[in-house]
Automatic annotation (TrEMBL):
Domain Signal transduction histidine kinase internal region: 160-238
Membrane spanning residue stretches: 7-26, 38-59, 80-100, 120-139
Molecular function, one GO term: phosphorelay sensor kinase activity
InterPro entries the UniProt entry points to: Bact_2-comp_sensor_kinase (IPR050640), HATPase_C_sf (IPR036890), Sig_transdc_His_kin_internal (IPR010559)
Any one GO CC term of the record: membrane
Species annotation: Draconibacterium halophilum
Source domain of life: Bacteria
The protein, known as: Histidine kinase
Assigned keywords, A-Z: Kinase, Membrane, Transferase, Transmembrane, Transmembrane helix
Keyword Cell membrane included in the entry's annotation: no
Pfam families reported for this sequence: His_kinase (PF06580)
């Protein structure tokens, strides 16, 4: 990287000298000029050429902090033009003051009388260079946005497929049918209720799987159905507290909270002696927390380990915030940033 920067600066140095030589030929008809004049032309060209080259580095720094071509193109154009005008003016007037007023000992009136065309031409050159820089920057931003959207679409499809696959997989259905079979012999009314909840659960899976976002209330209702089915199976060994305020105006990715609860059930031992305790709550930072005590299974179920990664990528794209996963103090916690519709990207 450092070698490339050095090479670029050397190229800028050589190009600036060449421009000075070309200017000498255009103004004087040949390169046969006094050495002092040649040095003056070279110095003047370098004083303009190197800052012009440095403008690319300056704009890269400025772009990362103040430019957003995709979401705020109008504001970005104004900011870029203002930054470029201020920078260009500082370079042009400083260079001309040094070489014409200080070195050649001219006064401003004489300089402006004979060199106003030089100032105008330098502004035009800087504007042309700036236009090229802006065009390249805008194209890169547009290309990155397209790539990011395509990546998010792929991650979204992968997440939806993974969740749907998990819910329809033989293990989940087998366990649910086993529970139902046991209930039929023990409690017919409860078996009917279990059947209705299982039916509603799969209905919601099919309803939500193709949506981009749903309300927090809808997701909590869905998670509640899932927990009911699992608590019938595990009884008091599975303890789930949901203290999330459903009135909070937030959105979530469909089935994502349920997937986090299922993840806790799938990877931890559950027994009356060591119950699994899961908490679903809203933090003061407008985040949804899913937390459970850690008691890992000795033999974990097979996992692709991509579910959390895909989910985190999609939440970061939709909210601009990271989904935080922590494991300490005997607890596993996932903090999911709630999606605010008014601030969500299209």
């Amino acid at each position: 990287m450092r070698k490339r920067v050095v090479i670029n600066w050397l190229v800028a140095f050589v190009v600036s000298i060449l421009i000075g030589m070309v200017t000498t030929v255009l103004m004087g008809g040949s390169l046969n000029v006094p050495f002092k004049q040649f040095v003056w032309n070279a110095g003047y060209s370098l004083s303009l050429g190197l800052p012009l080259f440095a403008n690319g580095f300056l704009f890269s720094w400025f772009e990362k902090r103040y430019i957003d071509w995709v979401n705020r193109p109008g504001t970005s154009v104004v900011r870029a033009l203002l930054m470029h005008f201020v920078y260009s003016s500082a370079v042009i007037w400083t260079v001309n003051w040094f070489w014409f007023i200080h070195v050649m000992d001219r006064d401003w009136a004489t300089f402006l009388q004979y060199n106003s065309g030089t100032i105008i031409s330098e502004y035009i050159i800087f504007i042309i260079i700036a236009s090229i820089i802006y065009a390249i920057s805008f194209f890169k931003a547009w290309r990155n946005e397209v790539r990011q959207k395509e990546e998010v679409k792929r991650e979204s499809l992968a997440l939806q497929y993974k969740v749907l696959q998990d819910q329809i997989n033989p293990h989940f259905l087998f366990n649910s049918l086993n529970v139902l079979g046991s209930l039929i012999d023990i409690d017919t009314d409860k078996a009917k209720q279990f059947t209705r909840e299982l039916s509603k659960f799969y209905r919601d899976v099919l309803q939500y799987k193709d949506l981009d976002i749903i309300s927090l209330k809808e997701e909590i209702d869905f998670v509640t159905k899932y927990i009911y089915l699992q608590q019938i199976r595990f009884g008091e060994a599975l303890q789930v507290d949901i203290i999330a305020n459903e009135k909070v105006e937030g959105k979530v990715i469909p089935l994502s909270v349920q997937a986090l609860v299922e993840n806790a059930i799938k990877h931890n031992e559950i027994s009356k002696a060591n119950p699994l305790k899961i908490l679903v709550a809203i933090s003061d930072d407008y985040e949804l927390l899913v937390e459970n005590n850690l008691q890992p299974k000795t033999q974990l179920e097979e996992s692709s380990k991509t579910g959390l990664k895909n989910m985190a990528g999609r939440y970061e794209y939709l909210t601009g915030k990271q989904m935080i996963v922590t494991k300490n103090g005997g607890f596993f916690r996932v903090c999911v940033p709630l999606i605010r519709v008014e601030g969500m990207k299209d």
